[in-house]
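Saturday, quiet lab. Running sequence design on the structure tokens for the scaffold JK sent over.
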């Protein structure tokens, strides 16, 4: 890769691929349609010229508040082609949160998707003194303010102002003036422990990550990526957008998280970037469906999975067992081919990040013949630090550092990383920057880990999440939570026990499984939430927890638990947009349940 900036990469790709392949696909009027590189470039150039007329210049910060859609990409490429800095945020943020972010970075303009997002911005516009323009992706919106205009009108204005050859020259001249060390984007961290901080990522930061990923994972123009994770997050933006885009692969946007299974069958993707939650749900759904089959079919399924795991293990160790291969081929014919068929039949890989991937989930997908590459990183590292190589997967680890990235383990177990992918710093926050990156360029990740004998990185927990009980024992909650969540009755588990005598847990149950239990036990109920108080259901869940944690040290075992009547959600504030649990929010919200569990019996 010879390009040193994202806009430079875009121009090269447009010249290479022209109208020959689809760059992106998206739903329009109920059908997926494609847009070629040159069609995309026409819109990007016109929008960029339109922004120039509005006074947008190199170094300006421009907000993006939108769900994944082709207009997000157009805005991103146009803004960055001018040398301006885009500041994308999760569209789930409340107005006050948007006010903090956009006041902090002093945006000149904000691009929003629809009326809902527009209303949030107009509510706080007077508190962001630098804001001059609001641009709406949808053609129809409710506002008569002169500062508000449609994206379509800005694109049309750009088309009218300059002829195609002149537009081309203006954009090319602008791109030539962009340096690899210039800021590409500001990505604000989730702010789970205070106000969010703006992570400053340069073109060099992002492209070093893209280059490193391509040296490990071989994508081609024949691949089709299904993108469902938010583009505003560094993981999807770098991996599922820029990396895929750089190879000529087609990127198709899922309509929503809820429609993924339908979109997979429509598009038949070959690669999906994901978070573990989707993989957990897929595995759980498959097992739930198997329970409805005859005992014979259940027996064949479980035999096939066991065979698949053994086959993968022997292959990964370099052993060839002909009889096992014969059994695996039979398992594939009878079971695995049908499961893969439900993903469209072309899916060859998931790339998983954002949270720890449970071992049983990874083993299952490897067993059926779908590779899952688990990686690790932070927004501050653009984001990838390490990833499992396709031919060197070590289950339970997040692989080796990518090329040019160094990692080391500090004396207290914290993982440190250094390389061209490490952020420039936090926006207007020198103190936080100096706390995160030392004078030798090492980024303090805040994660605890170790290096295995094979040279792979293993994450054991977040440094700040380590539970120290009253007896001075250190307990890493995530591995225990991941184990407990293997129970079919449990959706989420949050361990509690810091400075306490014993460990407890807050649990959100899988209500579909509780309904099955209620039918089995003949329990009558009016609303589902009543089931969390039924003694038979509580006893069943307790028995399953006891079964799962039987091999844990006594001080690590959950002594008491409380069932919560509603699933954790982004809307209620318990989950981040990438579906990680906001531990401090959950503990604060359900403190009364926690205190109840620590009352003396």
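Result came back. Writing it out in full:
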């Amino acid at each position: 890769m010879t390009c040193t900036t994202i806009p430079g990469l875009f121009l090269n790709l447009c010249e290479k691929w022209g109208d020959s392949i689809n760059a992106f696909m998206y739903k329009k009027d109920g059908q997926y349609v494609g847009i070629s590189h040159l069609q995309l470039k026409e819109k990007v150039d016109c929008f960029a010229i339109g922004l120039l007329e509005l006074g947008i210049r190199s170094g300006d910060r421009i907000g993006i508040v939108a769900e994944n859609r082709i207009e997000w990409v157009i805005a991103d490429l146009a803004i960055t082609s001018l040398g301006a800095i885009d500041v994308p945020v999760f569209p789930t943020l409340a107005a006050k949160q948007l006010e903090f972010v956009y006041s902090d970075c002093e945006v000149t303009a904000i691009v929003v998707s629809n009326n809902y997002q527009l209303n949030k911005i107009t509510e706080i516009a007077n508190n962001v003194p630098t804001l001059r323009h609001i641009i709406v992706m949808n053609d129809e919106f409710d506002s008569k303010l002169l500062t508000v205009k449609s994206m379509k009108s800005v694109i049309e204005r750009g088309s009218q102002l300059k002829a195609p050859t002149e537009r081309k020259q203006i954009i090319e001249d602008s791109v030539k003036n962009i340096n690899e060390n210039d800021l590409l984007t500001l990505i604000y961290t989730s702010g789970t422990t205070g106000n969010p901080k703006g992570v400053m990522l340069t073109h060099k930061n992002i492209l070093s990550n893209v280059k490193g990923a391509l040296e490990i994972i071989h994508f081609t123009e024949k691949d089709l990526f299904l993108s469902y994770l938010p583009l505003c997050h560094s993981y999807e933006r770098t991996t599922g957008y820029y990396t895929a885009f750089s190879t000529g692969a087609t990127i198709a946007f899922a309509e929503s998280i809820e429609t993924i299974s339908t979109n997979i069958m429509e598009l038949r993707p070959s690669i999906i970037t994901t978070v573990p939650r989707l993989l957990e749900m897929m595995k759980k759904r498959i097992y739930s469906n198997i329970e409805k089959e005859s005992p014979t079919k259940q027996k064949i399924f479980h035999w096939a999975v066991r065979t698949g795991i053994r086959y993968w293990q022997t292959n990964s160790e370099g052993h060839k067992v002909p009889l096992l291969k014969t059994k695996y081929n039979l398992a594939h014919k009878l079971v695995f081919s049908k499961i893969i068929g439900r993903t469209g039949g072309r899916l060859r890989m998931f790339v998983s990040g954002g949270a720890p991937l449970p071992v049983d989930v990874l083993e299952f997908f490897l067993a059926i013949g779908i590779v899952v590459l688990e990686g690790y990183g932070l927004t501050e590292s653009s984001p990838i630090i390490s990833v499992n190589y396709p031919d060197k997967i070590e289950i339970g680890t997040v692989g080796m550092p990518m090329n040019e990235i160094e990692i080391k383990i500090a004396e207290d177990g914290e993982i440190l990383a250094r390389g061209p992918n490490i952020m420039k710093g936090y926006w207007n926050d020198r103190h936080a920057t100096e706390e995160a990156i030392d004078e030798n360029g090492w980024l303090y990740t805040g994660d605890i880990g170790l290096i295995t004998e094979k040279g792979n990185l293993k994450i054991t927990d977040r440094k700040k999440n380590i539970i120290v009980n009253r007896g001075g024992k250190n307990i890493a909650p995530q591995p225990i939570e991941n184990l407990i969540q293997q129970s079919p009755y449990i959706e989420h588990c949050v361990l509690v026990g810091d400075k306490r005598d014993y460990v407890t847990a807050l649990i959100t149950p899988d209500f579909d499984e509780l309904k099955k239990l209620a039918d089995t036990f003949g329990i009558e109920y009016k609303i589902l939430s009543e089931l969390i108080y039924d003694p038979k259901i509580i006893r069943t869940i307790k028995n399953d927890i006891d079964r799962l944690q039987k091999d844990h040290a006594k001080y690590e075992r959950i002594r008491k638990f409380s069932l919560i009547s509603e699933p954790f959600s982004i809307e209620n504030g318990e989950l981040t947009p990438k579906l990680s649990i906001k531990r401090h929010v959950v503990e604060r919200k359900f403190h009364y349940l926690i205190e109840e569990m620590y009352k003396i019996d």
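Notes for JK: Residues 295-316 form the longest helix (22 residues). The chain has a mean pLDDT of 94. Ask whether to fix the surface positions before the next round.
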